Amino acid sequence: MKRLIINIIALMTIGQLSAQTMITGSEWDNPLVTSVNRETAHMLAIPDALGTTADMSQSPWYQSLDGVWRFQWVGVPTSAKTEWCAKDFDDASWTNIDVPSSWQVWGLNHNKSWDKPLYCNTSYPFSYNESTYSVMADRPSWFTYTGSKKNPVGTYRRHFTIPDTWKGRDVYVRFNSVGHGYYLWINGQCVGYSEDSYLPSEFKITDYLVEGDNTIALQVYRFTSGSFLECQDYWRLTGIHRSSFLWSAPKSQIRDYFFTTDLDATYTNAKANVKVTLEGADALSGGTVEASIVRNGSPIATASASVAAELSLDMDVTAPDKWSAETPNLYDLVLTLKDAEGNVIDRRGSKVGFREVSVRNDGALLINGQRMVFHGVNRHDFSPINGRAITPEEIEQDILCMKRLNINAIRTSHYPNDPVFYDLCDKYGMYVLAEANVECHGNWNLSHVSQFKNAMVERSQNHVRWMRNHVCIFMWSFGNESGNGNNFAAVQAAIKELDKTRLTHYEGGSDYADVSSSMYWDYNGIKNKGMNQKNRPHIQCENSHSMGNSMGNVREMFDLYEQYPCLTGEFIWDFKDQGLLTKSSDGQDYWAYGGDFGDNPNDGNFCINGLVHPDWSYTAKTYNTKKI
Fold this sequence. Notes:
The chain is of the alpha+beta class. The chain is built from 9 helices and 35 strands. It has an 8-stranded parallel β-sheet. Strands 1-10-9-12-6-3-4 form a 7-stranded antiparallel β-sheet, with no helix packed on it. A hairpin with a 2-residue loop joins strand 18 and strand 19 (298-306). The protein is globular and about 65 Å long.
């Protein structure tokens, strides 16, 4: 460890940049450190010449980093050389790996001797020091991650060139998912560190770039202090799991915005508001910010304000078409930053909708004034082919399959999904219970431990900042099965500081949240709740465990949900079998589950409990769900 720290300090020149924080190389094993030099989370949009909401990859200020990277795997952190991240390091002998991918799945499919996929439900597949929470404590000999594979590290490298048209602008790199913690290098200089495997992470890299050829390198750790909060019931996989890209913005730019709507008492007309944060506003004295809500190419409402670091724009909208799962009406929001001469400096846009979440005095949850009963499912962001690296086409197929089954709501169990998912839920109409990447199932007491308070709060804050402009999201969830510690009181306060337009949820400690919640309560328990609770909604965030020949009494449960106003329906566990496509010893394809790769600890076939099979083929439970 000491040599690793010395090497990092020797390589980096961050100390020369006064705005940056010094990196020690030990951040990955310290629960008090969740990032270094990472940009504050903000809305997802990047500059667009037209301000439309087309695929951001069509923007001239976007450059994809997806594709083939060079990759080197080692079994323990001390074997990961920092000199591998130097600009001119010769990586010719390394493996070509596809990005995005999960290295365990990719390695399995390419006959590599790396660590294999591991499925575990409630246990940590590592041991830790109960005082310092170091993840490098000695493991039992039967653990997969022990000895020479105690904590693998994957080093990724590739080259890129910045377009000449980006000169004079700031350049950022964004990774939509990297697990479970990584250091970033640009041209041999260590830029920063980041945890939280399922939210975007972003770094400003302007000052590290050179003309012509540039190199980018990541060192990704299998286990970090962030792994304590990622003990979900799923395949434990690692790598650059989602798309990554470079993007460019002017020095004076629209850095963030938050669009909200307030429907009148009859849910007919609306007041729209957009709060805007600018960066470099001082350089645009006399400039303006203009907001337009556009439908079919024509503005239906506009507003403008003078440039300031923070500003708020209000618009009256007459009889907008409201958004719901049944009628997912969307509008284009276009924000334009201009200088004093009227020249366009920056333009951003996204899809928005008019939708209002409220609670009636009998505890009913309302959307646009209508009482809701959710026919929901829990969904993992998972590909049976590539593990955690799921394609946009697979995500769309998941949602279209749900629509065909009359499912109207999704809980993102138990972490934020790919940004593409929320775009598609906006488009097709799905109510989203958006869950933060927090589950310490292996030690529920951590929600009482002060060392993890900041990480728990930050994961919800960043979740809200990145995703809050998506109209499909009706509720924020603190996480899953992490005890009832008072760290969650701080989580609730942090969410409400950022967004007062949505309700909050946490099954493990409903007293902290806006709604009460349960899992797998029986008929009499739910009936009693419905009869006696009048002050707030109650939601079954998991129910009707769809493993094997199950779900025979779901209709009876929905009779209760429909009868009692405070009951809001349920989210079936879960949507699709988490089977990994692999081959048997005789070359036959089959869907693998825990233990099939010699992975320990594992929970066997407990990941095979979906309404549909991994390839979306139907089961008897599928037809039952569609009918109900």
